[in-house]
Structures are given as C-alpha cells and as structure tokens.
Amino acid sequence: MKVLLAVGLVLGTAQIVLLAVSDTRGSAASFTDTFGHIPAIAGYQATFFGWFAMICGYTCFEMMRRNRSGESRAFRIGFDVLGAACLAGVAAAVLKMVQIGMELNGITDSGGPQAVAYQVLLALMILGFAVGFILPSSERIKATFRARRRRAQDIAALRPIVARLVQTPQGRSSLGAAQIFLGDRPSKAQLYRWFIFIGDVRVLQPALISPHETAIIDEVGTRIEHNGSTVQRPAGTGR
C-alpha cells in the first residue's frame, strides 16, 4: 500500500507538470484524438491510465485473495462482480494506452474497434462497480426490514402480556423505571423495556405469568440474545 501511494504521488506530480506545459486550449470531444499527438499529453495520459490500471489490478488481487467463507451470499457475489469490474478497468486502461501510442504515431482511431472496445469495457467497469456495491447494501437493507418485521411480531406477541401485567400491583411497582408505552412503536427500545419490565414482574411474582406466556417470553428473549437472528418458534406458542 505504501508503494502504491508513493507511485501515485509521483505519477500525480508528473501528470500535473505534463498537463501544465502542454497547449490544450479549446474543447475536445475526444482528448486523445485531439491532443494525443503531443508527446507531453501522451506521457500525461500514459501515466494516468497506467496508475489507473495498477489500482484496478491491485484491488482485484486483494478481492480475489480475501477469504469470504463467513460472508453472506450477496456479499460474495458483489465481491466477485467488483473483481470482474476491476479486470474490465485494467483491460480498458491497456486499450487506452494502445490508442495513445497509435495517436502519438499519427494513427487516429476515433471510431475504430479499439475505441469501441474501450468504451464497452469502460461501461462494463462502471456497471460492475454499481452492481458490486449495490448487492451487499441491498442484502443489509433486506436484513434490516426483516429485523423490523420480527421486532413488530415480538412486540405484538408481548403487548397483551404487558397490558395485563401493568394492571397488577407488581406491574405498577415496576412501571417507574420501565417507562412502559403500549402503543405501536416497533423499536428496539420499546421491545427491550417491555422485556425488562416482564422480567421484573417475573422476579416479584412468577405465578402471574402462565406457561404459555412464559414460552412466548423465552422465545423473544432468545431472539434478543442472538441479536435478531432467526430462531425457530417452538410448537404450542400460538404464533
């Protein structure tokens, strides 16, 4: 990494110098076709795309050597797509440098096969980056919504238990610290407060909670302990 940063600083400085000493006035739809015959511009572009190819190649190498056995399927696929996009970037950089060499020798390839292939590879690289970054994020978004649905189900299951317990003397004595709110608010704070409140009441008077309610409470507690992981519902909980 230090070597790459050092090379990047050197190449960046060289690019600034080469671009500064070159006459590139006027607009250009294709920078290479218009100014590629200027040796300084050819050097500028060669260093730029050489650095770009190094970054893409190094990124692909690090992605391929990473151990992804513990990652989600979407994350692994996203990493593979990003690696392929980096390879497309390396190929695009190589083709661009070929074009630079052709232009420096007076051969224009404005609409030739190399130019078309470069544009296709560049489009594939951009598309690959987009898909590769979106896949892991989409999986996390789906996991977040699944967790919210599970939390809402747990709150709905605990609501009748909490509503009954707050009417008991043991429940009223535990209300001050628990800040119980019985409305619809599927948040972690509400679920945890309800669970703590029920636990306090169980300590004060275990007989207030039926075996069926105990099974529901224990199931919710197991899910909280596993931080939202999917837990099979035991038979007989009525859910």
Layout of strands and helices, then pairs:
Layout: H1 2-20, H2 31-35, H3 39-65, H4 73-104, H5 113-165, H6 169-178, H7 188-204, H8 211-225
Helix pairs in contact: 1-3, 3-4, 4-5, 5-7, 5-8, 6-7
Structure description:
This protein is mostly helical and about 240 residues long. It has 8 helices and no strands. The model is unreliable at about 230-239 (pLDDT under 50).
Structure in a nutshell:
The protein is mainly alpha-helical. The chain has 8 helices and no strands.
Low-confidence spans: 228-239
Structural class: mainly alpha
> What is the beta-strand fraction?
under 5%
What about the largest sheet?
Answer: none
SSE run? HHHHHHHH
List keywords for this structure.
8 helices; 0% strand; 74% helix; rod-shaped; disordered C terminus
